[in-house]
UniProtKB/TrEMBL annotation:
It is found in: Endoplasmic reticulum membrane; Microsome membrane. Keywords: Endoplasmic reticulum, Heme, Iron, Membrane, Metal-binding, Microsome, Monooxygenase, Oxidoreductase. It comes from Nezara viridula (Southern green stink bug). Pfam families: p450. This is Cytochrome P450.
Length: 507
């Protein structure tokens, strides 16, 4: 019996020593580091997502300043936070070939809906990126603009019916966002503006909340990273996958059978499937890139539509709701942006694509919103080939890089008085002085957000539609200051943003 106890204790002690042995890595390599403890590494909060991830990384960012980079561990996974702008440039653009992938967790190819640009790595990502890039040019956005306007007109009717009411502003603008994305990505007139219970509207909110089983899977994979390379994880519920794939396949079948063209995202994917490119001008570029050939299947099309739904909804609805919150508590800024909207629309005789492009102050307001509330508080890159940085530190293959976007956007060195909402930071005169690679709402380099133009356009259309019909003000339920809640990867308010819509009045 005593022998069994002794052997058990010895085995436990050896396992413990093996587990924590990796924590000596950074000292051995001469890299500044944040202390790690058994079994969670740097912090239990990172693993449990019990606090906003931006705050967690900001604590390290400030503690280990002014080191350009430093190491830490999540369980046994070595990670490096890089905070110096030139080093961020080094990772995102200059030496991109060494940091092309986003994450060490490899998803199963059977998880069809995760075969999209955000999740794919390696050659499949590069080939798909080259092929999809033409879908988001300014010309394609202009062609889709009438679809935006048709949704905005219905949204304005909803706004008028809500004047005098206190509303959950994200829920409200989310209806317009859902309709724009669904009509552009799936070719569906979901009409969530009037009927808010449509299944497609609920999907993004469900996905933003990580299930307990997903957290357990990630914990196991982080504790045993070598095993994770062989273990193909699946995070999309099969029921959801079947629903999205069937939806896209039925829409494709209907369009091809009836020869329907709508100048939307799905039309462009159909062209890509049938011709291999979008527009003849891309053939030479694809050949020059020597991209890995692959079949653009219905499943792959469904995955791009799915990413469009989730990414487009969360980014746009969040930016709009944060922006309206700031306009409600900064009435002078709201009056100025409303004045610009009214004057430019009057000049153009209506809301046109060109009119939206000319709204410079609105663009400044949105840019400042994305600085103060970046949708993704951190960016991740995975080192695929070892490389030595200009500071002499070596980054080994299989190490994960964290870029603390939230911290950069709130660093007084780059943005004086960072908690102040000040659109003038992005005026024509001032934005040139912003240090490169300290403003990263859409990322940067070859893996920056491909849907940036679409996201900004639908954000602007939503704000214009609302501000033309009413004025926003704080109400009793408005939380001031705004608190950010725990989330797996997004900047989401801890409580719903409640605002009051009041009648329009002269600017």
């Amino acid at each position: 019996m005593w022998l069994t106890i002794i052997l058990t204790l010895l085995a436990g002690w050896l396992l413990y020593k093996y587990y924590v042995s990796v924590y000596e890595l950074w000292e051995k390599r001469g890299i500044p580091n944040y202390p790690s403890k058994f079994p969670f590494g740097y912090s239990y909060e990172l693993l449990a997502q019990s606090n906003f991830v931006g705050y967690i990384h900001d604590k390290m960012y400030k503690k280990l300043a002014p080191n350009p980079m430093f190491g830490f561990f999540v369980m046994r996974v070595p990670m490096l936070q890089i905070r110096e702008p030139e080093l961020i440039r080094f990772v995102l653009t200059k030496e991109f070939s060494h940091f092309r992938d986003r994450m060490f967790i490899k998803l199963s190819e059977k998880d069809i809906l995760n075969q999209h640009l955000f999740s794919l790595d390696g050659e499949r990502w590069r080939a798909l990126r080259v092929k999809l890039t033409p879908t988001f040019t300014s010309g394609k956005m202009k062609a889709m603009f009438p679809l935006f306007i048709s949704c905005a007109e219905a949204f304005e009717s909803l706004i008028v019916s809500k004047i005098g009411c206190e509303v959950d502003i994200k829920d409200l603008v989310g209806r317009l966002t859902t309709d724009i994305i669904c009509i552009c990505a799936f070719g569906l007139d979901t009409n969530t503006i009037k009927e808010s219970d449509h299944k497609l509207r609920k999907i993004p909110a469900q996905l933003a909340k990580m299930r307990f089983i997903d957290k357990v899977l990630i914990a196991i994979m982080q504790a045993m990273p070598k095993v994770s390379c062989k273990f193909k994880a699946r995070f999309t519920p099969k029921e959801l996958e079947d629903y999205i794939v069937n939806l896209v396949e039925n829409t494709l079948e209907y369009r091809e059978k009836n020869n329907i063209k709508r100048n939307d995202f799905l039309d462009l994917l159909i062209e890509l499937k049938n011709k291999g490119t979008i527009g003849d001008d891309m053939k030479n570029e694809i050949e020059e890139q020597k991209c890995q050939p692959f079949e653009f299947t219905n499943g792959l099309m469904a995955a791009q539509c799915f990413a469009f739904l989730f990414g487009g909804f969360e980014t746009s609805s969040s930016v709009q709701s944060f922006c309206l919150y700031e306009l409600a508590i900064n009435q002078d800024i709201q009056m100025r942006v409303k004045k610009e909207i009214d004057e430019i629309i009057e000049q153009h005789g209506g809301l046109t694509y060109q009119a939206v492009k000319e709204m410079e102050y609105l663009d400044m307001v949105i840019s400042e919103t994305m600085r103060k509330y970046p949708t993704f508080p951190v960016l991740m890159r995975y080192c695929t080939k070892s490389i030595t940085t200009p500071y002499g530190y070596k980054i080994e293959a299989c190490e994960t890089i964290i870029i603390p976007v939230w911290s950069l956007h709130h660093d007084p060195e780059y943005y004086p008085n960072p908690e102040k909402f000040d659109p003038e930071r992005f005026s024509a005169q001032n934005k040139e002085s912003i240090k490169p690679f300290t403003y990263l709402p859409f990322g940067e380099g070859p893996r920056m957000c491909i849907g940036m133009r679409f996201g900004k356009l639908q954000t602007k259309v939503g704000l214009i539609a609302l501000l033309r019909k009413c004025h926003v003000e704080p109400c009793v339920a408005t939380k001031i200051p705004l608190e950010i809640g725990p989330s797996p990867m997004l900047t989401i308010p801890k409580h719903p943003i409640e605002l009051k819509l009041v009648p329009q009045f002269s600017a």
